[in-house]
Design goal:
five-stranded mixed β-sheet, two-stranded antiparallel sheet, 3 helices, 7 strands, RusA family crossover junction endodeoxyribonuclease
Length: 150
C-alpha cells in the first residue's frame, strides 16, 4: 500500500488487488426476525481500504470542509485473453465495461474512509473517476481539500 499525507496537499493511498464494489445488504431470518447484514466480502474489502487510508493519514486530523476526490480503478487483465487483447487492454484500446461498477467501487471506498479521512462523504464536492485495465490492479485514491479560506 502506497500512502501519503500532507493536509495542505491532501491524502493519497493505493489499495492493491482486484477492486470490489459495495455489495448490496443481504437479509437473513433469525428466529421470527429478519436482519440485514453487509456481505463479508464487502466488510473485508472496506477494512483493507480503511487500513490504507489510516496509514496515509499518519495520525493527522480528519479533513474538514469540501474535498475533491480523484480515483483510478485498475482492473486485472484476464489471463485467458490473447496476447493481442491483453496488449490492447494495457494501452487503453480495450476498456473495462463489466463488473465491478465504478459507482459501487466509489461507494465501498467512501464508506470505508468515513471517520478515517473525513467526517462523512458528503464533503465530496468534486469527483474524477477512471476505470481501466492494468498490470497492477487496485484503487488509487487522492483526496484534496478545497477549502479556500472563506
Amino acid at each position: 500500500m502506497t500512502v501519503h499525507a500532507d493536509q495542505s496537499a491532501g491524502v493519497a493511498f493505493f489499495v492493491p488487488g482486484p477492486p470490489r464494489g459495495k455489495g448490496r445488504p443481504r437479509a437473513a431470518k433469525r428466529g421470527k426476525h429478519i436482519t440485514l447484514y453487509t456481505p463479508k466480502e464487502t466488510v473485508a474489502y472496506e477494512s483493507t481500504v480503511a487500513l490504507a487510508a489510516q496509514q496515509a493519514m499518519a495520525g493527522q486530523p480528519l479533513l474538514a470542509g469540501p474535498v475533491e476526490v480523484t480515483m483510478r480503478i485498475v482492473l486485472p487483465i484476464a489471463a485467458s485473453w490473447s496476447k493481442r487483447k491483453q496488449a490492447q487492454a494495457l494501452d487503453g484500446t480495450v476498456l473495462p465495461i463489466g463488473k465491478p461498477d465504478s459507482d459501487n467501487v466509489v461507494k465501498a471506498v467512501f464508506d470505508a474512509i468515513n471517520g478515517v479521512v473525513w467526517n462523512d462523504d458528503t464533503q465530496v464536492v468534486d469527483m474524477h473517476v477512471r476505470k481501466r485495465y492494468g498490470a497492477m490492479p487496485g484503487v488509487q485514491t487522492i483526496i484534496t481539500p478545497l477549502d479556500r479560506g472563506g
